[in-house]
Design goal:
Order of helices and strands: EHHEEHEHEHEE
Strand order of the largest sheet: 1-2-3-4-5-7-6
Distance between the termini: 29 Å
Shape: globular
Number of helices: 5
Structural class: alpha+beta
Radius of gyration: 15 Å
Mean pLDDT: 93
């Protein structure tokens, strides 16, 4: 993985090395994702994007590996059927100290630029993330449902 001081680097999850734990801490700080799930899945991600400022990791996002069982569960909960082999974009998280600086949109753009796999899906409860997904061509599909912590919605990008 490229480790320049002020750029976005992209790699696969298994190439994160020592950066994995830092990324997991940022995801945990975002408090939107089950940390146990992130701990199990981030290293398996097809693509991971890492944003550094002055060498400090300040943001992370991923195109997760295929998880047919999870996708089936999302389809059932949302009432919207989609291919269970779709990849999911997620774990978009930015350190609290670096939020509102355009980092999350840059992470999403970088992931979409490098990952030509379509369609993709996402789930979120965060209003800002819903707006971001919409800006990048995702559309809300199906019904919202109760997640572990909040009400979730399904987003698909064709």
């Amino acid at each position: 993985m490229n480790t320049d001081q002020n750029e976005i680097a992209i790699c696969s999850g298994n190439e994160l090395g020592d950066t994995l734990q830092v990324c997991l801490a940022i995801i945990k700080e975002g408090d939107a994702v089950n940390p146990t799930s992130a701990n199990e899945e981030l290293s398996k991600a097809s693509y991971v994007v890492v944003k550094r400022v002055g060498g400090l990791v300040v943001g992370v996002g991923a195109i997760k590996g295929q998880r047919p069982g999870y996708a089936r569960s999302v389809a059932q909960k949302s009432g919207f059927q989609f291919d269970e082999n779709l990849h999911e974009i997620g774990y978009i998280s930015v350190r609290e100290t670096h939020r509102n600086q355009g980092i999350a949109p840059a992470l999403i753009k970088s992931l979409l630029d490098v990952c030509k796999i379509r369609p993709l899906f996402a789930t979120t409860s965060n209003e800002t993330m819903k707006s971001r997904l919409s800006e990048f061509g995702f559309r809300k599909c199906g019904n919202e449902w109760q997640g572990e912590k909040s009400i979730l919605s399904l987003w698909i990008k064709d």
